[in-house]
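This part of the workshop introduces the protein records we will be handling. As an example, a complete record with its sequence and its structure tokens follows.
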Amino acid sequence: MDHTRDNPLKRFSAFWIAILLATSFGIALIITQPFAPDKTDKAYEMVSEGRLEIKDGIDRAQDDALNEAALAEALSPS
């Protein structure tokens, strides 16, 4: 920047214009977010049912294998 054209008022106004521009861009993004298309992948949704069934089976097997009496005995202060 040429030192003859530089003054504090121009810097001050440029700073606030930049802040205003960034803020207005952020507000515009917040306002338009509900209108954005859904980015959910249909193939992922189709596979998720199978994955949830597998996870439920694993969780049930772990719950059945858990010996709660031995766990309570190990956690009790001796």
